[in-house]
Amino acid sequence: MARLDDRQIEEKLSELDGWQRSGDAIEKTFELGDFKGSVDFVNRITPEAEELNHHPDLSISWNKVTVTVTTHSEGGLTGGDFELAKRIDQVA
């Protein structure tokens, strides 16, 4: 997928709830109640990432999971990043 320009990124970001741009990535923190809920959430988003062959960076801190998405091979954001973000929101 081709790398998106700033205008395209802002447009796609406006379609998502709670995701923010962080340099050449987008990220969102999900609050899950406790550590088990955080791990369960990661396990639920794994099939989505595998299906798209697009894997986010994940940070677990007890009751929170921060998901960071970028396309490393393109050096920035692509449409695939936003598709994965939408799927993660659906699972959440």
- What is the overall number of helices? 3
User: How are the strands of the largest sheet arranged?
Assistant: 1-2-4-3
Unreliable runs: none
Q: Please identify the structural class as seen in this structure.
A: alpha+beta
Rg over CA atoms: 13 Å
Q: Determine and state the CATH class.
A: Alpha Beta
Instruction: Give the full name of the CATH homologous superfamily.
Output: Transcriptional coactivator/pterin dehydratase
Q: Which term fits the overall shape?
A: globular
Between the first and last Cα atoms, what is the distance in angstroms? 25 Å
Overall average residue pLDDT: 96
CATH fold call: Gyrase A, domain 2
Number of individual domains: 1
Would you write up a description of this structure?
With 92 residues, this protein is α+β, with helices and mostly antiparallel strands. It has one domain (6-91): Transcriptional coactivator/pterin dehydratase (Gyrase A, domain 2, 2-Layer Sandwich), CATH 3.30.1360.20. The protein is built from three helices and four strands; from the N terminus they run αββαββα. A four-stranded antiparallel sheet has the order 1-2-4-3, covered by helices on one side. The radius of gyration is 13 Å and the shape is globular. The two termini are 25 Å apart. The mean pLDDT is 96.
